[in-house]
Write a structure and sequence with these properties.
Layout: E1 13-15, E2 37-39, H1 46-52, H2 57-63, E3 77-79, H3 87-104, E4 111-112, H4 114-129, H5 143-149, E5 156-163, H6 168-176, H7 179-185, E6 192-198, E7 201-208
Parallel strand pairs: 1-5, 4-6
Antiparallel strand pairs: 2-3, 5-7, 6-7
Helix pairs in contact: 3-6
Length: about 210
C-alpha cells in the first residue's frame, strides 16, 4: 500500500458578495421569465419570485425540489425554466471545462470519480446548511479529513471553493483568474476530481489516487 503524503497545496477562497438595495415594490415584473436562472437576494421568497416572473408557485417548487422555500440562501441560483440545467448537469459541465483548461496546458484529463463527487457535494451542502465559507468544515474538519472520513484514499489532494456564481462558466472564469485556484486546476499530479454544487456553493476536490 502506498504511503499517504500530502503535497503543498494552495488554498484560496472566492466569495462574491451581492447586494440588492431596491425595494421589491419598485422592481419590474414580467409575463414570463426573461432568463433561465434567478439569483436569490435578501428578502426573496418563492411566492415573490413566482409573482415577479409570471410563474405558478407550484411550478417553481417543481423546478427546484432541493431548495427549502423557508430557508432560501442569498446568492444561490434557482431554475426559472425547464431548459435550465439542474445541479448534476452543472457539476458535469464544470468537469468538462476543467479538462478543456488542462488540455490547453498539455495535461491529462481528470476523471470525475463518484466517491470524490459525493464528498464534494456533501461539502457544498455543509457550507450552506452550516452557514460558513471555509476550507475547514465545523462538522467534517479539513478537506483531507473529510476525504478520509468518507473512505477516499489519495496521495495528494486539493480543494477549490466558491459561492454565488450562477453558472459553471462563471465559476470557472473566477477560479481561472485566481492564481491559487488555477494552480489546483492545472496541477499535473491530480488524476481525479469531484465537483459539488448546492444552492450557490461550488466545490472542486482534486486527488492523486
Amino acid at each position: 500500500m502506498l504511503k499517504k503524503s500530502v503535497s503543498v497545496l494552495l488554498f484560496c477562497a472566492l466569495f462574491l458578495f451581492s447586494f440588492n438595495f431596491s425595494a421589491h415594490a419598485a422592481i419590474q415584473t414580467f409575463k414570463e421569465p426573461p432568463f433561465e436562472y434567478y439569483k436569490v437576494s435578501k428578502g426573496d421568497s418563492f411566492w415573490y419570485i413566482a409573482q415577479r416572473y409570471g410563474l405558478d408557485y407550484k411550478e417553481l417548487m417543481r423546478l427546484n425540489p432541493n431548495v427549502d422555500p423557508l430557508n432560501m440562501q442569498v446568492g444561490s441560483s434557482i431554475r426559472l425554466k425547464d431548459t435550465a440545467k439542474a445541479a448534476s448537469s452543472f457539476e458535469e459541465e464544470v468537469v468538462r471545462l476543467v479538462n478543456i483548461e488542462r488540455q490547453k496546458a498539455g495535461l491529462g484529463a481528470v476523471q470525475h470519480r463518484a466517491d470524490v463527487k459525493n464528498v464534494a457535494e456533501k461539502k457544498a451542502m455543509d457550507m450552506i446548511n452550516s452557514n460558513y465559507f471555509s476550507h475547514t468544515s465545523p462538522n467534517y474538519g479539513s478537506p483531507f479529513d473529510m476525504l478520509k472520513t468518507f473512505g477516499v484514499t489519495y496521495r495528494a489532494a486539493g480543494e477549490n471553493i466558491a459561492k454565488g456564481q450562477k453558472s459553471p462558466q462563471e465559476v470557472m472564469n473566477s477560479w481561472m483568474n485566481s492564481a491559487g485556484h488555477k494552480a489546483n486546476i492545472l496541477n499535473g499530479q491530480y488524476n481525479a476530481v469531484g465537483v459539488g454544487y448546492y444552492n450557490g456553493a461550488w466545490v472542486q476536490m482534486f486527488i492523486q489516487s
